[in-house]
Amino acid sequence: LDWASKSGLWRPKAQGHSNDKPDMKFGIPQMDDLSVKRVLNHIAPLACRNFIVPELKANLMAVERKDALLKFASHAFKRTAAVIVGEPTTEYKAKVQELILKDKTAKVTLERKKKAAEEERKRLVEEKRKKADEVRKAAKRKRDGE
Question: Which of 102, 111, 134, 146 lies at a C-alpha separation of 20 to 30 Å from 96?
Answer without folding.
Answer: 111
